[in-house]
User: Which sequence fits this backbone?
């Protein structure tokens, strides 16, 4: 009976080792930052080009048709779950969960007290999730996410038509807009 108990405990320890995520938090930060950077670069490249060529109204077309497919493509290439999540979202598929809302709130508070914002890692069962803050760092962002006097009127009409419940306006320069999310399964 005693041997049996020891065997059982040994198996239990082995099983828990097995389900422990293999990546360290530092590795998650490093890989997560690289993947978030790749998504950011892919979105920014086309957005800037489209804004220069045809202005905000047409660039909206690009964002609304391409942002999610580009995110999906990088997610498949990198074999991770990838998203941008927001407390004040435009596309309801990017709505932050309860837990994510708390993280965003924390970033907002840190920013208000003048602290540096850095990525975080949340560990779950066999999963580690990387989050990093997205800020509206460029004045360009305000032409689609700023207040109504900053948003191009043509662009605003398209936004209202495509996103009747849009919450992603009235932001100020450098405000926290949401987070990149990269989920690593072990
Ligand atoms: C031409 C208009 C336009 C500009 C400029 C723009 N965005 Fe957006 N943004 C959009 C649209 C449209 C969506 C919704 C995309 C979708 O449906 O997947 C969006 C979605 C987002 C999201 C995902 C969360 C959500 O609300 O759905 C983030 C984060 C974001 N934008 C950040 C930025 C940042 C940062 C900048 C500046 C670098 C920026 N945007 C500039 C139009 C724009």
Assistant:
């Amino acid at each position: 009976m005693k041997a049996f108990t020891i065997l059982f405990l040994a198996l239990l320890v082995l099983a828990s080792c097995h389900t422990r995520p293999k990546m360290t938090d530092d590795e998650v930060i490093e890989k997560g930052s690289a993947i978030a950077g790749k998504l950011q670069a892919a979105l920014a490249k086309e957005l800037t080009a489209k804004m220069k060529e045809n202005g905000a109204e047409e660039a909206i077309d690009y964002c609304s048709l391409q942002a999610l497919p580009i995110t999906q493509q990088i997610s498949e290439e990198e074999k991770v779950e990838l998203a941008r999540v927001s407390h004040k979202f435009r596309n309801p598929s990017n709505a932050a969960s309860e837990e994510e809302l708390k993280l965003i709130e924390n970033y907002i508070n840190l920013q208000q007290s003048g602290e540096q914002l850095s990525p975080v890692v949340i560990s779950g069962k066999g999963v580690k999730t990387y989050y990093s803050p997205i800020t509206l760092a460029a004045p360009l962002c305000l032409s689609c996410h700023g207040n109504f006097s900053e948003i191009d009127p043509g662009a605003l009409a398209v936004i209202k038509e495509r996103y009747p419940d849009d919450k992603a306006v009235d932001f100020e320069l450098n405000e926290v807009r949401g987070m990149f999310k990269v989920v690593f399964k072990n």
The radius of gyration is 20 Å.
